[in-house]
């Protein structure tokens, strides 16, 4: 990413990097028993084809997913979901997008046996939901990386609210 400041460029840090650092350092404790479904990861073309962001999401997922399975191929060689170039926003061509453009991706998902497909790209998530619907994979849930991760985060005790109450489980004043 080009720097727009003269001598001291502002560092660009992606949310996946911040998340991974927090997990590695133990700042974000995770409950590995929260997500029990089989999970796979879709590499969006815009960040994976260049090898830009490939390994970080997988390390994050493996930190709290018991049954993570890769699509074949994956990473820089992964198949496009069929919604690239903004075509996902053109509902009039859905039959083409999902039937032709998404057919290979549907088969790729089917072969994994995954119940959840994680995709970090909003366009991919919309396309993958429609691909799953149109190819008999309606049981497969499409989710964002952080949408799934939030379920596994173990909150600090002082943030936990007791059932039926507004007070934290352990009061700070106690």
What does this structure look like?
This protein has 174 residues and is mostly helical. It is built from 7 helices and 3 strands, in the order H-E-H-H-H-H-E-H-E-H. The protein has a 3-stranded parallel beta sheet with strand order 1-2-3. Strand 2, helix 6 and strand 3 (141-143) form a beta-alpha-beta unit. Helix 1 (15-24) packs across helix 3 and helix 4 (94-101) crosses helix 6 (122-134). It is globular.
Largest sheet: 3 strands, parallel
Strand order of the largest sheet: 1-2-3
Portion in strands: 5-15%
Uncertain runs: none
What is the count of DSSP helices, taking H or I runs of 4+ residues? 7
SSE order, as H and E?
A: HEHHHHEHEH
Radius of gyration: 19 Å
Q: Quaternary arrangement of the chains shown?
A: single chain
Number of E strands:
3
Mean pLDDT: 89
- Overall geometry comes to globular
Percent in helix: 25-40%
Please sum up the structure shown:
The chain is mainly alpha-helical and 174 residues long. It is built from seven helices and three strands.
List keywords for this structure.
single chain, 174 residues, mainly alpha, three-stranded parallel β-sheet, 7 helices, 5% strand
Per-chain topology:
Blueprint: H1 15-24, E1 39-41, H2 45-48, H3 55-62, H4 94-101, H5 103-112, E2 116-118, H6 122-134, E3 141-143, H7 145-152
Parallel strand pairs: 1-2, 2-3
Helix pairs in contact: 1-3, 4-6
